[in-house]
Specification:
The protein has 289 residues and is α/β, with parallel strands linked by helices. It has helices at 25-34, 56-59, 65-86, 105-116, 137-147, 150-168, 192-207, 217-221, 230-238, 259-268, and strands at 3-8, 37-45, 91-97, 120-123, 127-128, 131-132, 172-173, 211-215, 243-246, 273-277, 283-287. The structure holds zinc ion (2 copies). One zinc ion binds next to loops.
Length: 289
Amino acid sequence: MNTPWLISLHGGHSGEFCDHAEGTLESVLSAAADAGFALYGVSEHAPRSAENLVYPEESAQGWTTDTLAEKFAAYGPEVRRLQDLFAGRLTVLRGFETEAAPSTWPAEMEALREKHDFDFIVGSVHHVNDIAIDWNLEMLELAADSCGGLEALALRYYDLVAEVVQTLEPEVVGHLDLIRKLAGPLGPVDTLPIRERVSQVLELVAETDGILDLNVSPVRRGHGPPYCAPWILAAARRLGIPFCFGDDSHGPDDVGAGIAEGRRYLLDHGIDSITTPDLRGGRRVISLR
Ligand SMILES: [Zn+2]
Ligand SMILES: [Zn+2]
């Protein structure tokens, strides 16, 4: 039996295509089917196309940008095969999670979307000035230094998110306040100027009919409440922007982790439905009650 609100639009990273994930994509989708998911959106990371964006853990085992490109080229057909394989048991949406680096990203992301004819994309930003902001504190500090401080980094981060939203019009906007993941020791990332910038981003999300990723990975990783923080939920709600869950799974064991907490979190903040794209290019609204 499926649970109607058990839906994730951001996740399905697997060890098959991603160095920092576990298991095969088929094992991830089996876990989703077994857990009673109604719909599971798979959004593997887009390949990073500049050598300075290859993570140290990837380089250490000889991976290059070519390795990342080859893995993604194999991902496209495999997720399509699995969409067919699971049909009738689990609705699978085929997608990918964007990067906003290097500077050639808009053309690269558009090309990936067209080449594999994906059902949807998750528009995410993980790098500012080509430095990862969610990998470790040392890199976050480098990114902040490159911008002239943490607040300037956060403003630049949200500017990049705005660019992704305007340029790619993603169906789902990934973990909007990811900048807070590791920022704690460095200072606040919800100052008045930052909140004003986030409001501008939200207006663009509303204009482009985007869905915000209620990304529950902080629940399992011990990084506080889900993305988005309560002040963003309230602002999004005022603009009528819908949400949908993302378990951001990086292996079968993560599938569904934190979604029950995410449901409670939305309900506690006055949001009683989620919205998902469907396979026919439309959208469905599902009650959380
Ligand atoms: Zn990942
Ligand atoms: Zn991400």
